[in-house]
Amino acid sequence: MSKSKRLWRNGFVACVVIGVIVLLVPFAFTGNSTSSASVTPSATATAQSEPDITFRPGVDTVPAEARCTDNAFVDHSIRTVEIGNPEKRQSSTAVSIPFAGKTKAEVSKEITAEVCGNPTYLRMIAEDMLLWDVNGAEANKPWLQEIVNQMNANGLDSFAGKLGDNPKEVVNDQFQKWAGWVNTVLLNFSPEDQQSLTSKRNWELPAVRDPRTLPVAQLASEPDSKPAWLRSLLTKAGTCLMIIGFNTEDRRMEVFTCGKPVPSSTPTPTTPLAPKSTPTPTSTPTPTPTPTPTPSPKNPALDPAPQGHAPVGGGTNLDPGSGAYVPPADMVQPPATPYVAPAPPAVTTPPVTSTPDPAPAPTTQVSLPAAPPVCAPAPGMTTCS
């Protein structure tokens, strides 16, 4: 084979190899693109990033903090009303008594105990959970509805009373099992501090009820704005999905709107304001004294008094005169008239009359018997005769 033919053959083979490479490169990148698309998160995975409050009875385990440790009946919903007494209900529609705890942890334990021992309280929360629409709420509705149906059919009193030889009132095992399920769902919410928000839904007891049976809570007709211990359902990113609360005064269940972010329990430090600068006092200008005017010499001819127009003296002068100045030596004096003193007033002296002496008081003369004559009898005689 000649040298020119070998060169032509080698060039042809090289062109074929380059063409094959060019054709295969796009497919290689397309395969990588398909592989990348296969690991893109789906809509289902995004939905699963939200908290799921589903509880499956018989499958899921009730955590220790949701279990009932005491079967004692809690009588808070049937206590009498006494305002100011923390052991009594504070109004006729109060669901329970005020919380005794002052911290989130203490209040959470009181809520768990109330659910475990108060049929009125458990039924109220179960009915409110039937109205929820967050992720997992729909899956919980079958067993929640079963709780409400059983309580409606048998009455709340059938789940509490004196069981066997126990002298105190207790709740039965079935009731405590339901309470553990409800408490487990509540643990999905993060406890918050107490706040005063306006609820969009809350519960209360009827003001008039049969005292022989346990009361059943009902939806309140008016929103509530009193302080409540809040619990929030949040995503990992901190987005609020739902806020529930328990009224500080009577522990009623409340639901709030996620319109405003729930403040953290730790207050955010605020930057102190810079102190206001003290204004520089302005100097007050010294006022220029006004010179006192010098009075002009007085002309007696212009004085109104000599002209008979003086305002003082009890009226207008009958002889105003000409107003010309007359020296005292040329003045016409009125004639001198001797002064005659008036006669003294006559004094009338009343006549002096003698006053007769009063007549002496009459005296009573007392008659005495005549005294016998006095004689000296002669010797030898006994009488004067």
Can you walk through the features of this model?
The structure is a single chain. The protein is an alpha+beta fold and 385 residues long. It is built from six helices and eight strands, in the order αααααββαββββββ. The strands form two sheets. Strands 3-6-7-8-4-5 form a six-stranded antiparallel β-sheet, with helices on one face. It has a two-stranded antiparallel sheet with strand order 1-2. A hairpin with an 8-residue loop joins strand 1 and strand 2. Helix 3 crosses helix 4. The longest helix is centred in the N-terminal third of the chain and has 35 residues. The chain is elongated and about 190 Å long. The termini are far apart. About 9% of the residues have low confidence.
Structural class determined from secondary elements: alpha+beta
Average of the residue pLDDT scores: 78
- Coarse shape: elongated
For the secondary structure, the number of strands is 8
Strand content: 5-15%
Radius of gyration, CA atoms, in whole angstroms: 62 Å
Straight-line N-to-C gap: 249 Å
What is the H-and-E element order? Answer: HHHHHEEHEEEEEE
Helical fraction = 25-40%
Largest sheet: 6 strands, antiparallel
Strand order of the largest sheet: 3-6-7-8-4-5
DSSP helical segment count: 6
Low-confidence stretches: 25-47, 261-273
